[in-house]
Write a structure and sequence with these properties.
Layout: H1 2-38, H2 45-62, E1 73-74, E2 77-78, H3 86-94, H4 110-161, H5 171-183, H6 186-193, H7 198-207, H8 210-219, H9 222-233
Antiparallel strand pairs: 1-2
Region (Disordered): 60-112
Protein name: Magnesium transporter MgtE intracellular domain-containing protein
Biased composition (Polar residues): 76-85
């Protein structure tokens, strides 16, 4: 048994050495082939590498007490360990890379935030204006309905009596309607004056300040504006009684 062990130990020493010599011989053959093909006297990189590898194998086989190379080490040195987990991944996430398969949320730009704020404010303003316009429309519709009823009653009464026309609007109604139309935008008031009874419209325009009345008439249709101008020029107190106390 002892001689078998010695034989195996000697064989283990001889085989690497023989292999190294074979590698060296093969390297020289490769160098000769490269030189013959290229015609250059310099040794090729492949040949030098094979020679150095053969020498390293011979040195390792000649030292039986040396420990085998540690797994993970190469000829160029130990490899750098790869860290997995939160260390490197968190750095990538912080640097704007992909984290856990998902891109990190991008922070909102200052300009975009200001734009969103402006849009929200504009919506609030538009909502408030819409509510105010709806309330104005409700008041105008109610006033127009009352006015139409009074006109119909007045015209029917005058036709039945055969007498002169009597005032249809009281001073209170005229003042209230005038205040409503003055508070409106000229374009909105003009749209109503275009379909309103012309006598009533002229009476209301006559109660307004000249600048406000002219702004409304400028937005009216040309035909209605011409008729209103003619009636204002020869206006008589038919609808709204004028007080003669002051002369």
């Amino acid at each position: 048994m002892r001689w078998r062990f010695r034989f195996r130990l000697g064989l283990a020493k001889v085989v690497p050495i023989a292999t190294s010599f074979m590698v060296v011989a093969l390297a020289f053959d490769i160098v000769d082939i490269v030189r013959s093909v290229s015609g250059k006297p310099q040794a090729s990189v492949v040949g030098n590498f094979l020679i150095e590898r053969a020498n390293a194998d011979a040195q390792m086989s000649s030292a039986p007490g040396d420990a085998p190379p540690v797994a993970g080490e190469t000829l160029s040195g130990p490899t750098t360990p790869v860290t997995t987990g939160r260390g490197q991944g968190s750095e990538k996430c912080a640097g704007g890379g992909v984290c856990n398969g998902k891109a990190p949320p991008r922070p909102a730009e200052p300009g975009m935030q200001e734009l969103v704020t402006d849009i929200v404010k504009q919506r609030e303003v538009i909502s408030a204006e819409s509510k105010a316009m709806a309330e104005q429309k409700r008041l105008i519709d109610a006033a127009t309905l009352v006015l139409d009823r009074k006109l119909k009653v007045g015209v029917a009464g005058n036709a039945a009596s055969g007498g002169p026309s009597k005032p249809i609007l009281t001073p209170q109604d005229a003042a209230r309607l005038t205040a409503i139309y003055e508070a409106m935008r000229p374009a909105d008031a003009a749209a109503i004056f275009d379909i309103l009874d012309l006598h009533v419209g002229v009476a209301l325009l006559g109660n307004m300040p000249p600048r406000r009345a002219s702004a409304i008439m400028a937005q009216m249709s040309p035909q209605r504006a011409i008729l209103a101008t003619q009636m204002l020029a020869r206006r008589q107190p038919l609808l709204i009684p004028v007080s003669h106390d002051g002369g």
